[in-house]
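From the thread on structure requests for the teaching lab: each student submitted one protein with a one-line request. Submission from student K.M.:

"Model Helicase Helix-turn-helix domain-containing protein from Heyndrickxia coagulans, tokens only."
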Amino acid sequence: MPFLQAVLLDCFSNLNGERTPYAVFHLLNGKKSAQTIQDSHFFKIGRLFQTFPFISREAFTREVEALLKAGLLQKSGPDACVVTEKGAALLLATGRMEERFPYLDGLKYQDSANLFWKRLNLITQAVSNLVYGNKVYYPVQRDPALQAWAKNWLKQHAKSRIALAEHLYREFYSLFSGSPPEKPEIFVLRLTGAGRIGYTITQAASALHLDPVEYWYRFLHLLHFIVRRILGDPETFRYLYQMLHDVQKALPLTRSAAVTFGFLKQGKTIAEISTLRGLKQSTIEDHLIEIALTVPDFPLNRYVPKDEEQKIIQAAADLNTKKLKPIKEKVGDIPYFHIRLVLAERMGRSGSFKFFEK
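Reply posted by the TA:
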């Protein structure tokens, strides 16, 4: 089975027919909507968020159709698919994504890891060319903002070019010594240096005899491992930490939700924030869902009365579902927003839905 189909099958297994197939498409593309972020938490697939942004809607549809044709997926309604027994057996044999890639966490790291990689590749190229005395070369990253950042970083470390290269080498060596989760070549092959252009994804996959999609996920797995190591030990990785610390957010909120969170901390109401920001109240409510999933000690009962909270929890337990419509039908006139917020807060607090089980 092609590796991409294994990724899709893993996602569908977690969704278990409770979302449309395109929920998976939006997840892999990293769509920063309240629904996709909520799904990432609710169905424990946040590790795959934004990990395959290359796929088009048409290509995604073809892959899903191939899984249906192979009998690995089956329709469970007009807008849903579930994994068949055959598909579940195959997943068991190949291993789930969380088992194969334990350090992969797209929801937490992908934005910062992507920028860190670009910075690191550009700095590696610059330092390598400094060591060899090359003053003219084509930067591997053409983004003017990235180039300006690299020039500023190099000015801050305007010591001996050899000493700078040695510091970076030692930090790389520390990263890859011991037992990294993937072969270091997966990462190193893509670095650009003096007289050497880093491999593309396709070239690196070919050199390592891997399916290109599997190579990509192994590269991301190692990159996320590196980010985690650096953030956890800034003293050992002093130079690498300087390339990362300003882009890794303490709370993985989208930019707009973070602005709303700032207003909430000032004691503003949803209506007040909507007016101040010139956004629909429903958009601010979406931000609250994201905040409730992410921020510890979210003040749920500031927005949802305690009695409504208990009714929603009981309904979810009785129905054993995360679907909003059946819960709404059971609780009557309680607003959808309150249902979503209770589910989000409970998920953020516990990391699971076990408290809904009877």
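TA comment: The mean pLDDT is 91. Residues 3-100 form a domain with the Arc Repressor Mutant, subunit A fold (CATH 1.10.10.10).
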